[in-house]
Amino acid sequence: MIVQSSRLGALEVPEDKLIRMARPILGFEQLTTFCLIEQESFHPFFWLQSVDDPDISFIVVNPTLFCPDYHIEVHPNEIAELKVREVRLVETYVIVTIPENSVDMSINLQGPILINTENGKAKQLVLVNSEYHVQHLISDLMDRIENGGTVKVEEVAV
Q1: Which pLDDT tens digit goes with each residue over 62-100?
Q2: How large is the C-alpha radius of gyration of the chain?
């Protein structure tokens, strides 16, 4: 499938790599289908490109690169909505905000995006009663960078 992107041009994306939102990104409820674009020169960041609107893309990153102890507890119903067979099949990303002054670049640890890599279903969670906020300055987290980290996602008992 050819996905149009205002920033990246025409992108060839296999159908099985499309991401369908079971719960949309806040403020972008009309957008239901995305694709994750990796560019070597942009590493460790990815583009989360809307298939529905070529003008909408988000910069996302694995949160453990900047916050190695990032930990979220997810209610079993939240995981069930993604039709997850095994929690290890879930990848977690957070949205990056890059303002005019890049020193103020931040990540949203309160609204992670969970993607079931097996079936492409995804959702944005909004963590309540959490130590995480919408804006964590990357410059404040830089001393905690750790390569190869993984997000610990756990189902909580009901």
Answers
A1: 999 999 889 888 888 888 899 988 888 899 999 999 999
A2: 15
